[in-house]
Amino acid sequence: MPDKMLVFTAPQTDGKLHLRGELYPVAIHDTYAIDLTLRYDEDGAVPLTYDRLIDLNPKGIRASLGQTLFVMLKLADSVASPSEVARVALQFLLGRNDLQEVARGSLLGSPIVEFEYGVEPAEHALVWLDGNSRTTEAEQEGAYYVPLFNLLCYRSKILYVYEQSRWCFEQLQVMGGNMRQKGQTLAAWSSSDADKQKFMREWLDEIPTQAIAYEAYLRDMESHLIASEINIKNYTLWLKRLRKHCFIEDDLGFLEIFGDVCDSQQQQIQIDLQLAASMPAAFASTVPILRQSLESQVADGSSDRNILSAVNNNGKVLAAILFTDVVGYSARMDRDEERTIELVDRDFALMHDIFEREGGVLVNTMGDGLMIRFDRVSQAVDCAIAMQASLVSAAKELPTDDVLQHRIGIHVGEVRIRGKNTLGRDVNIAARLEGKAAPGSICISQAVYEAVKDRLPDGVLVERLGQVALKNMGYIEAYHLTLSR
Fold first, then answer.
1. Could you give the CA distance from residue 107 to residue 312 in angstroms, rounded to a whole number?
2. Model pTM greater than 0.85?
3. DSSP category for residue 120
4. What single-letter DSSP state applies at residue 27?
5. What CA–CA distance (Å, rounded) separates 481 from 462?
6. Which domains are delineated in the chain?
């Protein structure tokens, strides 16, 4: 549990339960989360009837997108149908009857039931029925808490990213529909129509703004796909850790089912990206068509002279993005989770010193990998070379089983910086390049290579990979950098 918490007691109200509670602040990498717990009668001396449960939720607190309402009930007597008890209790607590049971299982020896309610996106609730002393003892020990909290946090992030991606796609559909409608309107006009020229000029003026907005939505969707992959990876990791604190007879299948949801969501984002990918070309081809049509009707084309240059004025910044990950991380985690985490943390400490020295900014940590941003390409490449060299040097003093090999990918391009996040297509390219690197090597794009090819240090071997296929990114010219041993 967190080291710090805010304990509070609500004012006593006649005829109502005297509520107590705790507020736990938690930092999970780049995300801040809270656990708000409401309880009454810590000694459990006064049992509750169903109709009093509403007193635990007097303001009608609801779980928003991705959040989980987690209800723990200590049963006064054994029950024949835990699922029905959970349903009725939740109905009284929330004051609604549209609860849909999604799954059921057991946690720390007691039944737990999962519900969804409301319209899309559905709200989420877990009702845990503590019916035996083993559950009470394990719950009070609290070893399960951090894995479960992190698991639910990544569930929230996965759902949030998916909803954001779908929202972006809806905006793209609207923009695409508007463009088709304008095309149909233009086709219906006769060449002698006096308003046709005005319509074309207005459309021509709109296209740069529309193209920039469309590209932003498209790149955001690509970023959401990458984020989804990272969050699913972390969800799986914390599910494994939760299992370590569970009983042998526990059934966590209700948490595993969410993995199927994640797979279908990722497929949907990929389909959306494929459907939307052709529209930027339509924007680009429309500009010369409109210009040619205008120039055939009027001699003065000055009003649209700078129309294309505006497309590049999009508020992006140039940056080099570096990704790392550990080769064989999942297999190591399956063999010895605690030791693997210790080894990764050891290497991260070494890498942290190096990228700080080279002027890098840590953007994100993904289980076994880092995402780092640099202002200059040379900084990113120097950092990657120094990381691999330091890892090789450190490995000479380590037992073979304690040596981790890292892959590194680097790309340079225009990105958007939003708070602590760095977003954009070029970020996704860097992430894909990392997966193309051989163990202990660095994979860079041609843009990176052209910037540093004349200043690479002796002992760095360069191999041209040619055109490599990147998932959802098409093809890109890439190079391998390997340190001579």
1. 54
2. no
3. S
4. E
5. 5
6. 6-151 (no CATH), 153-312 (1.20.1050), 317-483 (3.30.70.1230)
